[in-house]
Amino acid sequence: MDLGIKGKTAIVCGASKGLGFGCAEALAKAGVNLVICARTKGPLDQAAEGLREHGVNVTAIACDITTDEGRAAVLAAAGHVDILVTNAGGPPPGHWSDWEREDFIKAMDANMLTPIALMKATLPGMIEQGWGRVVNITSQSVKGPISVLGLSNTARTGLTGYVAGTARDVAKHGVAINNLLPGIHATDRAKSLDGAIVKAKGISMDEAKAQRSATIPAGRYGEASEFGAMCAFMCSKHVGYMIGQNVLLDGGATVSTI
């Protein structure tokens, strides 16, 4: 399928590895020029080298995207932006009784306020040209809260509420904003959460992974490449009538009728 986005420019956050890299790679395969960012320069530069093999321009900006300075550097490098993919690592798991105000502020900075700031910066240009795509990588916990991920539940649900209104306001200008909700994928984030189970239950990593895989109807963890493919489709010319939606990609783990 021709996604109709060859030659466009995208910002992809958290793109040095994991789901962010999966999204960047799928966009590169579709011919999209990229500005990618992550905190650590070495892995980010390595990711950029691999992405350039698809014949697109790739600019790598090592920064903390949650800061004003980091966002300014990325936006300056991109210039005109057609596509925005927001993405940040989730807050650590824990227990409701342990989280303090500072923990929530940090989670909201990364998983709510930063995506909002990036949208505010890029939407005017998209509106002016009459076309744009935004995909926010959130979490299955938006649809089905996970008790140990209370910080993520809170921040990402806040972002979802912002998108629900904003997406409908800008749709008339040819701009589609949607959210992509991952379940468990074979990334460092999954390893971290598996590690928490190992510590809590005194079992091996293989046992922890097997236990969590058993909770997924698909019987396995997702792959970054298939997540990226869905992201690229949501950035394509084909989703102009998909507005403010929350698309689950969780192997069927979230139990709901609607």
Query: Which of globular, elongated, flat, extended, rod-shaped describes the shape?
Result: globular
Tally of extended strands? Answer: 7
Computed Rg: 18 Å
Largest sheet, if any?
A: 7 strands, parallel
Strand proportion, as a percent range, falls in 5-15%
Helix count, DSSP H or I runs of 4 or more residues:
8
Q: Helix/strand/pairing class, anyone? A: alpha/beta
Distance between the termini: 28 Å
Low-pLDDT parts are none
Q: Share of helix among residues?
A: 40-55%
Would you mind describing this structure in some detail?
46% of the residues lie in helices and 15% in strands. It has 258 residues and is α/β, with parallel strands linked by helices. A seven-stranded parallel beta sheet has the order 3-2-1-4-5-6-7, with helices on both faces. α2 links the parallel β2 and β3. It is globular and about 55 Å long. The mean pLDDT is 95.
